[in-house]
């Protein structure tokens, strides 16, 4: 039976069909994620940030108050092994500051500075434009469906790995 190669087969120059639709779907997610990360990463680099550094600043601005570093780590879009080093680099740039908890000196809170807020505010419009460029061609219904499918896949991954997410 001669079936037409899928879009992903063509992109990867794969001669044979994928062994299963699950394999093709996973590779599609990985390839798409890589391309989205590349485009977003380019924008973040224009502002001297990595995607993880942007994520820390976004979390802090959204919360509106200082957070313990472990709380920030738990809210990250992508897991980072060394949140302390990430915060160190942001602190050196004056984008965040650390404050020790008065009640428990072992706990360190991280707070976004006015410089950090200013930087994020400068990035908001270009980031919105990039989001629209990357996914604005999808209808609201398609975006909702995509979100639901990705959540469903991620929840199953977490269950299989014994983690929450």
Automatic annotation (TrEMBL):
Domain HTH marR-type: 22-155
Protein's recorded name: HTH-type transcriptional regulator MhqR
Species name: Gimesia panareensis
DNA-binding keyword on record: yes
GO MF, one annotated term: DNA binding
InterPro entries for this protein: HTH_MarR-typ (IPR000835), MarR/SlyA-like (IPR039422), Tscrpt_reg_MarR-type_CS (IPR023187), WH-like_DNA-bd_sf (IPR036388), WH_DNA-bd_sf (IPR036390)
Domain of life: Bacteria
One GO biological process term: response to stress
SMART domains documented for this protein: HTH_MARR (SM00347)
Keyword Transcription annotated: yes
